Structure formats: structure tokens, C-alpha cells
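Notes from hallway chat w/ T.B., transcribed later so I don't forget. T.B. wanted the structure written out for a chain they're using in a teaching module, and asked if we could keep both sequence and C-alpha cells in one place. Agreed to drop them here.
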Amino acid sequence: MLPWLTGEHAADPGRVHTEGRMARLAVEDAREQLAELLRVRPRQVVFTSGATEAINAAVWGAIHLGDDGDDGDRRRVVAPAVEHSAVLEASDRYELVRAGVDHYAHVDPAELLAHVDGRTALVHVQWGNHEVGTLQPVHEVVAACRERGVLVHVDAAQAIGHAPDLDLAALDADLVSVSGHKFGGPKGTGALVVRRGLRVPPMLVGGEQERARRGGMENVPAIVGLGAAAKTLLATQAGEVAHQRALTNRVIEGASALDGVRAYGDTSSGGANRLPHIACFGVDGVEAEAVLLALDQAGVAAHSGSACSSESLEPSPVLEAMGVDAERSLRVSVGWSSTDADVDAFLGALPRVVGALRALGQSPQ
């Protein structure tokens, strides 16, 4: 990324002079690298500032697709109640219908599709849950939506680089949102993957960038970094997935052995039914914020709920939808740089932290 952050390569990729063409080549090389990782064609990739923008663009495009025709009254959006807040809040601007899930955060495709009617513009389903890691039946939902003639968006932000055998060409969803930093790319990068032949109106207008699908000058340094991360991951993903699953299996086994600590989500089959890098727990008798602060003092960075709720520490809507305690959760995640020593540090600190807080009488009123 460094040459593109300096005056050495600072040109607008939309210009026809030599420097501009060099920048355009860098952007298109990165597009090809990301497309190869996702197993789609480069022309399907629309670069964005992250998954949140991609999600909002997907909702906007689906809702306004029929504005000039007979489908202009389609304003209904159907989504599982455990979707990310970006999905739910972008959809709640219209007529949002939330479908329930079971105790493990599993989506029932039949229940989800039962809410689809002639006014439905879009159905959401995430590849894997961002808090408890549960994998969803995305292929079944996409196929059912195609039969019903309704667009479907898949939030793959947590899945890219983590879910094994992820192939977006085989999935053939209409719209897929991608986050760069979730698999080692720069923060503030992402993409919306659009099915071949589908043309949805752009949310951001004011320029012809991204083949008129997203106005605004491309963030060349960040896009170059995103492509580099995708290229690296092509060679390392299989090993990383196996390593991450082994680490979180240790985390789940060790933490669940503690009194009053239980794992949330689908932890069966050796972790085959969840994303390999996420583990989530309920911890009785202590407040979530106190656990996080004490773990931080012990050198362990963890979280409660989803990453986008870090400033509020509100009860988790995901856990509420699952019917479990939404007030006291602990989310632990690992990545490409995580080690067995990191897991050892967590499993060593957690009993001390929970024990000390319980002794101090931190149980809820």
C-alpha cells in the first residue's frame, strides 16, 4: 500500500494520463485478486468502504429497482432476527419483517420464506452469525428465493476467509456483502458482489466510478491492500481455517468447564456447524462490562455482543432472539495471527477474573 499512500502514485484512476492509468491498473488488479478469492468474475465486484456500505447499497438497490415499473410498490424486506445491525437498520427504513430463530440461532428456511409475498423486494440471510458463529442454510434460502422471483442478499462479512469451501459462484446469490478487515485487509474496505446480469440502481451517485455502480473516487491504497490480503489468503486459507477451529474448540472446551459458563450457538460436530473463529459464552453472576475490563487488564482483548455495539454495551439482540440471557455474554474471536499461547492466556485469565468478580458481589440486581 505504501507507494499508493505517497506522492509517488497519487493519481486519480479515472484519468487517462499515464499516472491515472497506473492507478486504474492497480485497482483492477486488486479486483481480480478479490474475485479469485470469492470465485466470481471481476466485473461482479463493486468496491465499497466496508460491509456496512455494501449492505446499505444492497437494500437501497433492491428497494428502488422497480421504481420505474410495476414493481414500485415492493417495499417489504424479510430478515432473520439475528442479522447484523447494519442489515436490520438499513432494512427498517422500509417494511421490515423479522423471522425467528431457534435456541442456537439457526434460521428455518421455511419460516423465513413464509414471510415473502408479492410486496417483498429483498430477503436477507447471513452466511454465519457474527456473535455466536452459527452457520446458516444460505444455499437453500438462495434457491428458494430464486424460485419465488425475489432478490436475496447474503451477508458474508464474517464468512470470507473463515468459512471453508466458500464459493460465491456456486451460491449464485443476487447480492453479497464483503468486509475487508475481517480477513486481514485494511479497515474501511469492502465490496458488494452483484450477480451477473443484475443491475440495481446505485446508492451513491455523482460519478461513473465502479462502472456507474458506486460514485466517488476509489480509495486506491486501501483497495490495493484489500487485493493483497485476498491474494495471500488464497494460499493460506485452508490452514488458517483448520488452525482457527482448533483454537476456538480449545476455548469452548476450557471455558465451558467453568461453573456458570456455557457456550452459545451450535457447538456440535466438532465445530463444523459454526464459523471457525468465533466463540460466544454466557457467564452467570457477573456483568459483561466488568468481565471485559478485567480481561483487558490481564492482557486479553475480548468483547460482548457484536463489534458494532462496542460503545453501547446494550443487551444483544442476537441473544435475545435466541431466547438466552442477552445481558451477560462474552465473545471471543481468533484470527490469522492468533496462537495457542493466546488461548492459554485467555483460559488462564478467565477463571481468575470471573472468580474475583463473583467474590466482589457483581451479580445483577
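Follow-up for T.B.: The chain has a mean pLDDT of 93. Might be a good example for the class.
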